[in-house]
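Quick one: structure tokens for this chain, please?
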Amino acid sequence: MTLPNAGPESKAAEARLGVIYGLACYLAWGLIPIYFKAVKQVAPLEILAHRIIWSVVFLAVLLQFRRGWPAIVETVRSRRTMLALFASTILIAGNWYTYIWAIGHDQVIMASLGYYINPLVSVLLGFVFLKERMRPLQWLAVAVAAIAVLYMTIMIGEPPVISLILAFTFAFYGLLRKVASVGALPGLAIETTMLLPFAVGFLIWSSQAGTMSFTNISTRIDLLLAAGGIVTAVPLLWFTNAARRLRLSTIGLMQYLAPTLQLLLGAAVYDEEMHSYRWIAFGGIWTALLIYTMDALSRQKRAKT
């Protein structure tokens, strides 16, 4: 973290480091479909269970290394924070499962659409729940995005459910984590620990039912499933390190890297079709994001003068 009295050279070095962390984070999130495609033969619920279990193990090691257990104890003592984390746990579990299911069922492009929509949903939730004032261009951006989603709904005959679930669950998750007084590492550790009994219980049940893939397919699959903890936690830690060093507007611009990479993977690598109506709908979402970004940059520029 940049020191308050740090000189220009030190601040520039911190900013460069922040950019490296940010790029690493969003590149990892953008390329994560490759990981889930590699374990596609495993049931989504089992992948989720392993992601939870190995995240708990990995995060416990990190907490020990960083001496973060006092933060866990302090958080657990706060009833209000724990209630917020309980709700955020349900949301992130739903988000993770939906994403895993989507990648396994060749819906990478629709998953990427969800994370393009997400920033605009977050703006709307801030207006509704936090009484944050929405500027005219923000209203326009949300309206354009809504029209794009409505157009896709009409063209395919049903709402883009996967995209909307991913966008809204992650936006509500972000809202709850914003109001909960807990850091990224202890918060994620508590959330995954809350899910741990269900994950372990599911694996025990699937083992007894003879449907568990772990130890029954190949060593490669076993190692990939065990790597789920690193895949989950490391990008988040990179993100927190970037957020401490960069302006919010910079982070906001960088976040579009992940869904863009996912879109490219879906279309160019996994041969998912980009029908004309999808291009039109995506064009609407990109237009909305451009309006939103221009408004944010303009506001930041005015704040400096």
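The longest helix spans residues 8-38.
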